[in-house]
Amino acid sequence: MAAPASKAKSKRRIILAIIAIAIVGVVLTPVALAGRFSVPVEIMSFNETTGLTTFNSIGGTTQIVTAWEYYFSVRTQGTVRTSDSSVSSNGGTTNITLTMTLTNPSSQTIDLGRTAITGGIGTRTHTIYLSIDQGVRVNGTYKLDMIFTANVVLIGGLVEAPFIATFHSNFAISGQ
Question: Residue 20 in contact with residue 12, Cβ under 8 Å?
Fold first, then answer.
């Protein structure tokens, strides 16, 4: 009768070992991917009103977050986040494209791709989160170049001429 008891203990040990490996994986993987315990996150934000094609300047702040915060919170929400503050489709719609490149302290240019945003005409806030996945890894000065393009389609299908604006923003990372 000792055999069934040892089988149960063996199964329990296997289950506990699997749980322990999973916990270690969740705890160590973000640090291994980031290469350190904390990572810089540059947060840049600007407002735009597509109906009036006006902009304010792009502003940025740097935050240092843990690798776990970055991989389980910041990264999961995306690089570009847009919030509407006063948008309506009553007068038409807009198609926005953000095209971004980043130049790192070694003067290497990294293509961050394009982000497409569609919706009504009005005011939006765009926030860009740059960190290790986008190439912000080491101390130094970085440069973000962004081309903002908006095409407004009025009710009835009339397309306004595209609005294009180019932003250049420098930021520095230190203390890493």
Answer: no
